[in-house]
């Protein structure tokens, strides 16, 4: 029988999840992004934080272009997540999270996951 300390198991699971989450990519048109998913611990925006980090030559310096791209991606994510009762919000504080001005930021409030779990447990 193999025994493992709780901290070792926690670290193994965290490392494995980080590998999977950091490997995800999204391509939209001519742009490719690495998807980073983390827990947002900000008490006013508790939930899942999603960052799309541009790869290659993707540059979104023009604020209008960045807003348009961000809104299109938000709409696509919301359409895909609607069947789960989840909606993505644009993170207005993305500039505080990264030095890269091209990163697009979103979050899903934790309350939406609570509702999802509650419905699942009730069999809805």
Mind sketching the topology for me?
Blueprint: H1 6-23, E1 25-28, E2 31-40, E3 47-54, H2 63-81, E4 89-90, H3 94-97, E5 104-109, H4 110-122
Antiparallel strand pairs: 1-2, 2-3, 3-5, 4-5
Unreliable runs, pLDDT <50, ≥5 residues? Answer: none
* Number of distinct helices: 4
Class per helix and strand makeup: alpha+beta
* Helix content, binned percent: 40-55%
Q: Assembly state here? A: single chain
Let me know the largest β-sheet: 5 strands, antiparallel
Question: Beta-strand level of the residues, as a percent range?
Answer: 15-25%
Distance between the termini: 40 Å
Counting DSSP E segments of at least 2 residues, the number of strands comes to 5
SSE order, one letter for each helix or strand? HEEEHEHEH
Mean pLDDT: 80
Shape: globular
Radius of gyration: 17 Å
What strand order characterises the main sheet?
1-2-3-5-4
Task: Describe it.
- The chain is α+β, with helices and mostly antiparallel strands and 124 residues long.
- 44% of the residues lie in helices and 24% in strands.
- It is built from four helices and five strands; from the N terminus they run H-E-E-E-H-E-H-E-H.
- It has a five-stranded antiparallel β-sheet.
- It is globular and about 50 Å long.
List keywords for this structure.
4 helices; 5-stranded antiparallel beta sheet; 124 residues; alpha+beta
Would you summarize the structure shown here?
With 124 residues, the protein is an alpha+beta fold. 44% of the residues lie in helices and 24% in strands. Strand 2 and strand 3 form a beta hairpin.
């Amino acid at each position: 029988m193999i025994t493992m300390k709780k901290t070792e198991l926690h670290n193994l699971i965290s490392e494995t999840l980080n590998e999977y989450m950091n490997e995800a990519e999204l391509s939209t048109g001519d742009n490719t992004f690495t998807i980073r998913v983390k827990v947002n611990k900000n008490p006013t925006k508790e939930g899942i934080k999603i960052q799309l980090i541009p790869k290659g030559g993707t540059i979104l310096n023009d604020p209008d272009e960045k807003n348009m791209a961000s809104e299109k991606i938000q709409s696509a994510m919301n359409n895909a997540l609607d069947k789960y009762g989840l909606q993505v919000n644009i993170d207005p504080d993305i500039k505080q999270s990264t030095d890269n001005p091209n990163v697009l930021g979103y979050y899903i409030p934790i309350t939406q996951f609570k509702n999802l779990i509650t419905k699942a447990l009730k069999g809805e």
